Amino acid sequence: MRVEYINPFVEATYNVLSEVLNGEVKRGELYLKESSMRIMGVAALVGLAGDVEGRVLFDMTRDTALKVVGVMNGGEVFKTLDDMAKATITELANMITAQAVTKLHELGFKFDLTPPALFVGDNMEIANTLKIEALIVPMELENIGTIEVNVVIRERV
Questions:
Q1: Domain boundaries, the chain
Q2: Residue 1 pLDDT > 60, yes or no?
Q3: What is the dihedral of CA 57, 25, 72, 116, to 10 degrees?
Q4: Would the N or C end of the chain have less CB density within 10 A of its end CB?
Q5: pLDDT digits 0-9 by tens, 122-157
Q6: What is the mean pLDDT of residues 78-85?
Q7: Where does residue 60 fall: left (phi above 0), alpha (psi -120 to 50 degrees), or beta otherwise?
Q8: Alpha-carbon gap, residue 96 to 10, rounded angstroms
Q9: Residue 82: DSSP 8-state
């Protein structure tokens, strides 16, 4: 996996989270994961196709998702992942991937995105069908929780 593909997603995640959540964002220790992984409870998945193939997954606990949704909706308290909460998490994924893809297009990479798919549940597993390591970038959000950016991208073969 080339760092040129990864950095725009990490930078966009940091920038968007800092802006929309009005709080401190710290990048945690990066790590690699070879196999499929269980989501933490709420995950937005965006597929990539074109010069590259793969996916980016924004993974968080249900509690973190509800806090993010609350901040993004003017401080409103959300107790359930209703339609508004789900739409807000999906929009967050859209904002991050749009910024990352803009940067990648400026660097000369050409590819398309799928609309975000939202997964909510316990003990759900996302399969890594590309058989390459996933890079996990934890983003620690002050007073909110952690969102893990899970990136699997490779050049199309």
A1: 3-155
A2: no
A3: -10
A4: C
A5: 889 887 777 778 889 999 999 999 999 998 888 776
A6: 97
A7: beta
A8: 9
A9: -
CATH for 3-155 (3.30.160.100, 3.40.5.10, 3.40.1550.10, 3.40.50.150): 3.40.1550.10
Residue with tokens 């997954």: 57
Q: Please give the full DSSP string across 24-76, using - where no structure is assigned.
A: -EEE---EEE-S-EE--SEEEEEEEEESEEEEEEEEE-HHHHHHHHHHHTTT-
3-state secondary structure of 17: helix
Amino acid at position 50, single letter: G
Residue linked to tokens 């980016």: 56
pTM reported for the whole predicted model: 0.91
Classify strands 37-38 and 42-50 as parallel, antiparallel or unpaired: unpaired
Whether residue 35 has pLDDT greater than 70 = no
The token pair at 14 is 């940091």
Over residues 46-64, the mean pLDDT reads 91
